[in-house]
Fold this sequence. Notes:
- By secondary structure, the chain is mainly β.
- The protein has one domain: YVTN repeat-like/Quinoprotein amine dehydrogenase (Methylamine Dehydrogenase, Chain H, 7 Propeller), CATH 2.130.10.10.
- The protein has strands at 4-5, 8-10, 13-19, 34-35, 46-52, 58-63, 70-75, 79-84, 89-94, 100-105, 111-116, 120-126, 129-136, 140-146, 153-158, 173-178, 192-197, 201-206, 212-217, 228-233, 239-244, 250-255, 261-266, 270-275, 281-286, 292-297, 303-308, 312-317, 323-328, 337-342, 348-353, 357-364.
- The strands form seven sheets. Strands 1, 2, 3, 6, 7, 8 and 9 form a seven-stranded antiparallel sheet that branches. Strands 4, 5, 30, 31 and 32 form a five-stranded antiparallel sheet that branches. A four-stranded antiparallel sheet has the order 10-11-12-13, with no helix packed on it.
- The protein is globular and about 50 Å long.
- The two termini are 27 Å apart.
- Residues 1-31, 159-172 and 180-191 have low confidence and may be disordered.
Amino acid sequence: MRRRLLGLIVGIAVIGLFTGGQGIRAQDDGDKNLVPITPDNVGQLEQMDTWEGDESAVTSVEFSRRDPNLIAYGTMAGYTYLGQLDEDTVTQLAYGTGPIMDVAFNPSGDYLASGRRLSDAMVWSLNPPEIYAVYQRSGSVLSVVFSVDGSTLAFSGSDLIDVSDGEPIPGGGVISLLQPELGIPVAFQTAERISETTGQINSIAYSPNGIHIAAGIGGGNSIESGGRVKIWDVETLAEVAALEGHTGAVWDVKYDPTGQYIASASADTTVRLWDTTTGKTVMTFKGHTDEVNAMAFSPDGTLLASVGSDGTLRFWDVATGEQVSLIDLTNGGANPVWDIDFSADGTMVATASEDGFVRLWAVKGE
């Protein structure tokens, strides 16, 4: 569907509002009575709606943890969008140039962070939408994530600069932690480097208890072509584990809701589930025929959803390792799926695709 651009300019940030179409409501008292998605009913999943922005590939998507009706997504054209599902409106956030590689809400839903290729990390204040802070840099920011308590923003990527001396690190990656007094950065000069690796850092994730941060490494112009998962202690910045086993770059990492497991999605076409205590592989999910780009756990941890360059959306029963659902999004042609997320209430899944669409999926109740 296409939503009409009304147009609004705020300072140096361009913001547009789109309206029109028939957006799904996450909480609907009509015929869209949605129920949490589980291993038992995921086979009944239906596409409920599509959202688009600027007709370029959608690279990332995330639901607000506070508001199940609010999603954010970024595009290769360099725009970030806020979709208010219950009002059927999309707000376009524009600042600078270059593809948006990741988006992340803070836990309270008041701020949105985004990372850009070969450019910067940004934080938007959402009430009303406006640029709050920008960290200009020479390398790519591939992943952004807020800590569980919202006090820290971490971002990572490739060819990042060493914040201690401003020097670039060719072929390497770092994770920078921002710990402002008020929970959201007012200046990024105090960013602290947690790591330096010989591999591009594609994805980062905080453990549910906030003690550790995990990273998916490899690919890009990295010195090492293989993929690894590394884990650091956030307090001491010490590396506590390195999980080896993937034969290709690790594009995404996620903790399950309990913190017992880490899932990793790889260019080697597999998803691995790791025990965070032992560092051992618990199971390997096989089925994708091309690189696995992203994953998401359901809020109750019973399902793991994965998407890949083979254009498929797959659901796995975490208890058994069984693939319980497969949805083909290729429509007869190539259509890599780049990202996926569950809504906080577990009733919806959003996917971000090369064809320029965010698709919303749900299971209708009786």
